[in-house]
TrEMBL record:
Residues 15-122 form the EfeO-type cupredoxin-like domain. It comes from the Bacteria. The keyword Protein biosynthesis does not apply. This is Cupredoxin domain-containing protein. InterPro entries: Cupredoxin, EfeO_Cupredoxin. Keywords: Membrane, Transmembrane, Transmembrane helix. The chain crosses the membrane at residues 5-22. Gene3D superfamilies: Cupredoxins - blue copper proteins. It comes from Companilactobacillus huachuanensis.
């Protein structure tokens, strides 16, 4: 009987490990709402970015509103190298960043040390 229980536990652990490494993890993503020729998305910065994948409509002026709720200095800057943007994110303050949506594509952003990432998809 004990062997069967151990076997079941082992199988459950193997299943968990497989899921952990090979399963599809949900990435928080968002699509901007377009209103009055404008689109914006709020991004929470806390141990990473949420959402971390943002879809924007091409040709519509876009603003990403970053709010850093994380005290660590790691996330105190946000860098969009494709757009030459490197902005400070004061803690608990909303920082709006305008994104050029004139060209479709995928644009990465990162923290100042290139450790945390997110991306904007313009389509
Ligand atoms: Cu960092």
């Amino acid at each position: 009987m004990a062997r069967i229980i151990i076997l079941i536990i082992c199988l459950a652990m193997i299943g968990f490990i497989l899921w952990w490494f090979f399963g599809k993890h949900e990435v928080a993503s968002a699509t901007a709402d377009v209103a009055d020729n404008n689109q914006s998305v709020d991004v929470e910065v806390k141990g990473g970015y949420s959402p971390e994948v943002i879809t924007l409509k091409q040709g519509v002026p876009a603003t990403l509103n970053f709010t850093r709720k994380d005290a660590s200095s790691c996330l105190d800057r946000v860098v969009f190298s494709d757009f030459g943007i490197n902005k400070e994110l004061p803690q608990n303050e909303q920082q709006s960043i305008e994104i050029d949506t004139s060209k479709p594509g995928t644009y990465q952003w990162a923290c100042g040390m290139d450790m945390f990432h997110g991306k904007v998809i313009v389509e």
